[in-house]
Amino acid sequence: MKKTLILLAVLTLTVSGCIRLNGPKSPSAAGVFKSFDKGNTWAEKNLFLHSGGSGSIAGVNVLNLNFDPQDRRAIYLASDGAGLLYSYDGADSWRKADQVGNGRIESVAIDSKNKCVIYTTFANTILKSVDCNRSWSEVYIDTRADKTITALAVDNFNNLIVYAGNSVGDILKSVDGGGNWQVIGRLNDRVTKILISPQDTRIIYVATRSKGIFKTTNAGNQWNNLNDGLKQFSASLEYRNLIFDATKPNSLLYAAKYGLLKSDDGGQSWTAINLITPPASVDILALAISPKNNLEIYYATTSTFYKTIDGGKNWITKRLPSGAVAAYLVVDPLEDNVIYFGLANPTRK
């Protein structure tokens, strides 16, 4: 039975140093930066609004950033320790989803047909809001308190279908908006990301921490691993990120310990994207691709931002906008000159 969570203490003062309320800007500011010129320059976007006034999220360690599918100016920030934050003005200001509480938020998923329906992970639970962050209820709890929910995704065709993954590799599915759940796969490794094909939502990709990528073409009835095409690349099963190339169907960009790999056939085969650094020599901590031009790729390491406009033949390198570490990159789905960059201070994971 769903139970409504008790409102936690006032959001402004409960973040225990994760949200800095005042003081000078830090050269190691984390939080969010925004570029309006495809990564050439960056502006810090860390204004935090609360009932007592304003502050800063420059002390927040970002894990990922998620657009509302219906409103690209609505962005949800999953943090490592500061709970769930959100912006309704393209990161000009941030607020806290106070009923979610403080803690690590692994994943957020927004209903593509109803922007007020939001799902988030919280430890071993899944929480749901149906009123745009005003209140939250618990729709799933794993009785194994040490097993965390690590990934979420909502079907964009049937928005009552929700998928979740956990830290031991179980894949869960609900067909009634989180009321009931069933296990549809056991991958025996931490689920790090769930991607649902926008062209055919029966096609789903699940990335794991160190056992590669799995795929279903029938909404989870059967899973196949895509590792045969990856094994030629050393350390390619060690996940860093997986994203769609929005310019063409069945196209994926995969960051692994090896480096960057591209597939144009739904993961059956992969080709390496040429990087400046040798294979398996640096960790790619953030990855993005233009939704309009797939030759424009961005990634970042602990200290450096990389950009190519020709698919990897040549790279532009820049220092990160602060002394913090790269955590997440995402390009605005309509204005591809706009990039959001989440940063964190070690240790990120």
From TrEMBL:
Q: Which domain of life is it from?
A: Bacteria
Spell out the InterPro entries in the cross-references: WD40/YVTN_repeat-like_dom_sf (IPR015943), Xyloglucanase_GH74 (IPR052025)
> What are the GO BP annotations of this UniProt entry?
xyloglucan metabolic process
> Mind telling me what this protein is named?
Sortilin N-terminal domain-containing protein
